[in-house]
Amino acid sequence: MKIAYITDQLYLHGGAERVLTNKVNYLANLEDMTIFIITNEQKKNKFCYDIDSKVKHLDINLIYKRDRSYFSILNIVKAPIHFYKLKSLLNKIKPDVIITLSSQYDYYFLPFIVNKTLIIKEFHSSRHYYQQDRANCSKLKGFVYKLNDFVERKYTYNVLLTDDEKKYFKSNNTIVIPNFLIDIPKSFSSLTNKKAISAGRIAPVKGFENLIIAWKIVFEKNKEWIIEVYGNGEKKYVEKLNNLIISLGLDNNFFIKEATHQIEQKMQEASFYVMSSLTECFPMVLLESMSNGLPIISFNCPNGPKNIVSHNNDGLLIEDGNVEKLALAILNMIENEEMRKNFSKNGTLNVKRYNKQTIMKKWLHLFGYKNLIL
To answer: Which Gene3D superfamilies does the entry link to (predicted)?
Structure first.
C-alpha cells in the first residue's frame, strides 16, 4: 500500500509537524507499506523532527507569501504551477491513499485531480473563530466559505481531532481520530524546581501576552519562580513580547527561548505547564507535558484543552481569557506541592488512552489496510 502525505513544510517546530512525523514513522515500519511525504516549500531545510529513512520525501519547490491571503494576486498566480507539479507527481507515484494537512491550493483541487484513490483532509486547528467570522463576513468571503464546504464534500473523509469540531462542518463525511503519544517517558518531573514551562509557535493565537501579564501578578507575590517559553516565531513579534517582559520588570523571571529538540528534558526540569492560547484543537503539547508528569494550567479555550485535561484531576481549566484567574491558578499550583503530585500521578495515567497502537488502528482501518491486526 502506498500512502502519500501532503503538507507545506517539515522544518518548523509545531504540533502538526510532530504528529505527522509520529504517524509516518509508525507506518513506514509496517509490512507492505510505502510512505511518501510531499512538501512544497521545504527549502532544502532539515526536518525539525527525526523521520525514518524508509519514508520518501519529495518537494515541488513552490513558495507562497505567508503574510498574504492565498487568494492574493502574488499567491494565486502560483496555483496553476502547483496544480501541474502536484498532479504530475501523484500520477507518477500512484498512491492508494492521499492525506493532506495543507490549506493551500492543493486543498481545493486535490479531490479533482486523482481517480480511484482514498482522499483524506486532516484538520489540526479549531474552527471556532472561523465559524464566528463566517456568521458576519462579507459576501466575497462568504463565497470562499461556501467553496470550502463544496470542496470538503468531495473528500472521502474529513478527519477531525474532537467531536466538538463536527458542528462546524457542512458535510457528512467527518470522522474523529485524536492524536497519539509516541511513548510514555521512563522518568518524570520531580515537581520541585521553581520553574514553569510553556511551548509552541510564538504567534498571537498562543496568547503569550496574557501569560506575561499573568506572570506579573504572580511575580508581585512570588519572585522566586520563573517560566520558560520554548518556540519560534516572527522576529518582530518575538521582540514585541520581549519588550513587554522588560517593561513589566520580568526579564529575570520570564524567558522566551528558541524551540528545542530537548523539550522532554525541559519539561522534566519544570514543575507544571501553562497554556494561554486563544484557541486550540487538540494540543499535543498537553499530552506530552502530562506524559512527563507535569500538572496543567490552561485557559478553557475553544475547543481543545477540555478534551485532554480533567479539571481538578490532572490540571486546572481557567475561564477563557481571564488573566487574573490564570495568575491565581499559577499561584495556587506554586503553593500546593501536594496538588502538583496528585495531578501529576493522575495525568500520567490519563494520557495512556492516547497510545499509538489504539489511535493508529483507527487510521489503518480507515485506509483499508489488509494486514490490520485487531
So the answer is: Glycogen Phosphorylase B
